[in-house]
Amino acid sequence: MFSVLKDKITTGFSVFWESVKSYIKNDNSSAAASLAYYSLFALIPLLLLLFFALSFFITSSKAVMQRITMLISQFIPYYSDTILNEVYTLARHKGMWGVVGIGVLLWASMPLMGTLRTAFYNIFKIEERPSFLKTNILDLSVILLTLSLFVAVSFSNVAFKNFLVLGGSTLPYDIVSYFLTAAVISVFYLAFVPVKISFCYIFAGSVLTTLLWGIIRPLFGLFLSYNPQYGITFGSLKALFIIIIWIYYSFSVLLFGTELIANLRRKDVLLLRGLFYETHADRSVQRIKRKFGQDYKAGEIIFEEGEKGSEMFYILSGSVRLIKKEQTLRIMRKGEYFGEMALLIGTPRTTSALTEEDNTSLAVIGPENFETLLREKPKIAISFLKELAHRLKKTNEILQ
C-alpha cells in the first residue's frame, strides 16, 4: 500500500515537472501572446454575442449589462469598465442585431478559436488536422458552447450570491465560484482537447488552472497597486494594454493546465522512456516493474512462432532465448527488448521466446505506449531502426 502511494506521489511530481519542461519546449509563452493578440479582436464581439444571448432571457438592457459586468469582473478584474462601456454603446444600436451583424461577430471570434485549437494540437502532438470546413464548424460550435456556458454562469452567479453571501461574508460564495470556474474550464478543455482522454485528467488540469489563476490574480493586482504608472507609456490605451497583459497571463495558465492534461495522458510513456536511454535510475525500474512487469520461471514460453501479438517486451532481469524453426537465434539479456516486429507491422510472431532462467522479469509494452514513444521521441525511434537493422543482418548471417 505504501509503495503504491509512493509511486502515485512520484508520478505526480514527474508529470508536473515534465509539464514545466514541455511548456517551455512547446513555446507556449509565444502561443499565449498570440492568443492575447487575437483576444483583442474577439473580446468585444464575444461580449456583444453574450449580450444578445442574455437578451433572450432578460428584457432590460441595464439588467443584461449588470450580468455581464458581474461575469467579466471574474475573468477580467482590471480595467474591465473600458471594455464594458464600449460593449454597452455598441449594443444600443439596433442595426447590430441583424443576421449580417451576428454573422460578422461570429466571424470576428473565429481566429481566436482557431489559434487556441492549434496550440492544443501542438501540445498533444497531433499531426493530422481536420479539414478546413470541419475546423470551422468545430470553432463555431465552441463559440456557441462558450456563450451557453457564460449564460449559465451569469444566472448561477446571481443565484449563489443571493444564497451564499451570509452576514456580509463572501467566503462561501468565493469557494463556490472557484468550483464553478473549474467546471467551466473542464467543459472548455473537453471541447478543445483533440484526443480521447479520461475525465479525471481533464478535471485535474482544470483544478490546477483554476488554482494558478486564483494565485496570479491577486499577485497581478498587487503588482499594479505598487506600480500605478505601469502602462502609462500607452497613454489613453493604458487600460487596454493592462487587459491584454492580464489575458496573456490567463492564457499562459490555461496552456500550462493543458500541458498537465497531456502529460497525465502519457504518464506511462514518461515512465517507460527511461528504459531506452543509456542511463536510468534503479528506482524507476522498480516502478516500471510494479506497473508493467511480469515474472517468469526458467523454461516458460512467452510466445510461440506464428502467434498473433500486440505487445513488445523489455527484459528487466534474467534472460530470454529466441528460437526460429528450432534454431536459437539469440539469447536476450537484461536491458534488451524483443517482440517489437509484431507491434510495428502487425504480423504474427516471427520467432518463439522462452525464458532461460528463474526470476526473469519483463516489462510488457502495449501498442498505444509504443506508438507514443516512437512518435514523440525521435531518438528512441532511431535507436529502434538501428537495432532492427542490426538484428536483420545478424539473422541473415545465422541462416546462411
Explain the overall architecture:
Helix content is 67%, strand content 10%. The chain contains 14 helices and eight strands. With 400 residues, it is an alpha+beta fold. 28% of the residues are buried. Helix 8 runs antiparallel to helix 9 (238-265) and helix 13 packs across helix 14 (378-399). The strands form two sheets. The chain has a four-stranded antiparallel β-sheet with strand order 1-8-3-6. The protein has a four-stranded antiparallel β-sheet with strand order 2-7-4-5, with no helix packed on it.
Main-sheet strand order equals 1-8-3-6
Mean pLDDT rating: 84
**Count of helix runs:** 14
- Unreliable segments (pLDDT under 50, ≥5 consecutive)? none
How many separate domains make up the residues? Answer: 2
Cα separation of the termini: 53 Å
Give the total of beta strands: 8
Rg, rounded, reads 28 Å
- Backbone shape: elongated
What's the story with the biggest beta sheet?
A: 4 strands, antiparallel
SSE order, one letter for each helix or strand: HHHHHHHHHHHEEEEEEHEEHH
The structural class is alpha+beta
Helix content: 55-70%
Q: Assess the beta-strand content as a share of residues.
A: 5-15%
Quick overview of this protein structure:
This protein is α+β, with helices and mostly antiparallel strands and 400 residues long.
What's the helix and strand layout?
Blueprint: H1 2-25, H2 28-54, H3 61-75, H4 80-91, H5 99-123, H6 132-164, H7 171-192, H8 199-226, H9 238-265, H10 267-272, H11 282-292, E1 293-296, E2 301-303, E3 312-317, E4 319-324, E5 327-333, E6 337-338, H12 340-345, E7 352-355, E8 360-365, H13 367-376, H14 378-399
Antiparallel strand pairs: 1-8, 2-7, 3-6, 3-8, 4-5, 4-7
